[in-house]
Amino acid sequence: MFTGIVECMGTVVEFASLDTSAAGGNGASLAISGAKQILDDCHLGDSISINGTCLTVTEFTEDTFKVGVAPETLSRTNLGQLQKGDPVNLERALAAGHRFGGHFVQGHIDATAEITEITPDANSVWYKLCVKDPKLMPYIIPKGFIAMDGTSLTVCDVNDDEAWFTIMMIAYTQTHVIMPTKKIGDLVNIEVDMLGKYVEKVTTSILHGAEDGSSTTSYIEKIVQRVLEKGSSK
Q1: Active site includes 70?
Q2: What is the average pLDDT across 15-39?
Q3: 2 included as an active-site residue
């Protein structure tokens, strides 16, 4: 679990599509440097968010660490596009008892969004993004939470029909995350608010029955049937 409050920015040392080392596990891996700030209490197997993606530490030094990257992760995120020298947002998993400054972020990327407009406004910046998977739009609401490359941000405008939304980034945030290094056409990892997903799943079952097909009768229909049966038996 993360908060979306980026702790520091690291730098890509290497993205290996096939890492045959023990830490690489014969799969894709990502090595990051400039991470001393978040490695003082690191252990093998710990979770660290890289651009909003929860990944497992397989090797680390005082300043660097390596993570494995699964094919599913590469297909949903922008991590496979990273090159040596690229900056990345970093955040450790939330520790119990710490102040919770952002929102509930799992580190499970839903999709990517493409930056279509960048508009300065005083010392802030507007970003307009087009969501690659329009099915996510019901979970993106004005003044709701969204995690972009692991940064907890507030949604401003939303257009469900055209599958885009906007956010505004204040000056302080601009100096502490990688978003200002991106340009129009670049992809950003997004994770929508997970609470919306749970609410939808529960209400869908109540209104329409189980999604797995085990029951096509909704809870409301069952209640009505019981009331009618009870009434007819009198």
Answers
A1: yes
A2: 95
A3: yes
